[in-house]
Amino acid sequence: QVQLQEAGPGLVKPSQTLSLTCTVSGGSITTRGYYWSWIRRSPGKGLEWMGGIVSDGVTYYNPSLKSHTSISRDTSKNQFSLQLRSVTPEDTAVYYCARGRVTVDAYDYWGQGTQVTVSS
Q1: Does 44 have pLDDT greater than 90?
Q2: Residues contacting 44, CB < 8 A, separation 6+
Q3: CB–CB of 59/117 below 8 Å?
């Protein structure tokens, strides 16, 4: 059973950098055939794919967020991380990490989500 768990601050001030980490258990983030994504849900935008990292370490980003988003991984800890720079209140959302299967291009495991509020 694969499990994903997000961790990070619940409150971030405008213009700061939001950093979230997803710890994966029950499966390796380097296993071929899978990709690992960050997705957020906000009242105004619904579900929004932010970007992801494939088993070989290649990253992909939502073009609308690419300029201030970075995704990385630590294979020794089986974790992947999100950094969102220069946040604004519009970045307030529930942030999820999820695993996708390449063969079906769908997500099969999700973290429970973590609420992040951007406010001064």
Answers
A1: no
A2: 90
A3: no
Q: What is the number of residues in the chain?
A: 120
**What pLDDT is stored for residue 43 in this prediction?**
83
d(CA 62, CA 53): 12
Report which of 87, 97, 92 is spatially closest to residue 29, judged by C-alpha positions.
Answer: 97
- CA–CA distances in Å: residue 100 to residues 15, 33, 67, 109, 113: 31, 9, 24, 7, 16
pLDDT tens, residue by residue, 87-110: 999 999 999 999 999 888 899 999
Distance CA 1, CA 31 (A): 15
Residue 54 token pair? 């494939």
**Mean pLDDT, the chain, as a whole number?**
96
